Amino acid sequence: MNGFLTLLINISPCLIAFAATFILLMFLPFGKALLGADRGRKFAVGSEVNVGKPTGVGFYFVIVFAGVVIGFCYNDIAIVSSMALVLIAMITGFLDDRAKTPWNEYVKGGLDFLVALAGAYIATFMMSGEVIIGVTGTAVTIPKAVYFILAVILIGVSINSTNATDGVDGLSGSLTVITILAFHALSIMRGTITTQSFIICEAVIGALFAYLIFNHYPSKMLMGDAGSRALGLLIALYAMYVKMPFVYLVFGLPFIIDGGLSILKITIGRLTRRKIIIMKWLTTPVHDHLKKNKGFSVPKTMLTIFFFGLVLDIVFILIAFLVNKG
Are 112 and 160 in contact (CB under 8 A)? Predict the structure, then answer.
């Protein structure tokens, strides 16, 4: 009995986040007055099926997991500051979800840059400056100025890649789950796990599991920019909190390939006034390429990218374990 109570206490952040998110998404309080309706995405394959669905429900689950984390870690200034910034990122995305017309990309980019600067400040001056090389476990210290610049880049890439990935039912949420779990597992192996990082992992997983009940194909609701931008920021901050930001290049690779290539392709095209269009053979985001050019169904597209990420995470963790054992 005591063991069971101990288990409940240990997993309480996950249970609370799951229950609260499930109830909120089941009833969507103030839904019609609060949430936006999906407008579809220009040039996005199959996006017309989502038109009219409630969007921006990331508003609910981000408030839940951030609130749970702050409630359990209220005396950790780095964690509280990180969750406050995640809430700010959620609000900027939510306002875009609610807007009658999508915000200008330059406005979004400017807001993302400000969030990245704030996140880099938190990571550089409120978290440990030590970085652990994921495969070997070697600890290195990066000069603060360099670390700050790298943190800005990591946050910007993570926010935009996660946002661009959110175009297939269940994809962005499920990828975030395995990405956070992979960082968590590797932090246990490398000794960078803390009570706070454990609580963050539990709260996020609990909230996203509840969300995925409503977002699996065919989805009933969408997280919108309110969810995707906040999750992108969270992943970057979590990677830096457990001292393994460079491992994002592995665990975050599904986001980079699926969504990041789209951002890169668009950016180069705009900077060169469409004189240079890279990867003309590839429709981006990659999930659109799979649906349009390969004829994949929505579930097959989601599972293909998901299992690519899952196998990648498992292989990397296994290699790190074998290197550590050797």
Answer: yes
Residues 6+ apart with CB under 8 A from 283: 45, 289, 292, 293
φ, ψ at 142 (rounded to 5°): -100, 135
> Taking the complete model, does pTM exceed 0.90, yes or no?
yes
Listed residue (166, 234, 159, 244) closest to 201, CA to CA: 234
| pLDDT digit string, tens, across residues 93-107 | 999 988 877 777 888
Q: What are φ and ψ of residue 236, in 5° steps?
A: -65, -45
Query: Angle at CA 186, nearest 5°, toward 156 and 178?
Result: 60
Spatial contact of 318 and 197, defined as CB atoms under 8 Å apart: no
Where exactly are the structural domains of the chain?
2-325
Summarize pLDDT for 42-84 with one digit per residue, the tens. Answer: 545 556 667 778 899 999 999 999 999 999 999 999 999 999 9
Dihedral angle at the C-alpha atoms of 90, 93, 96, 102, nearest 10 degrees? -170
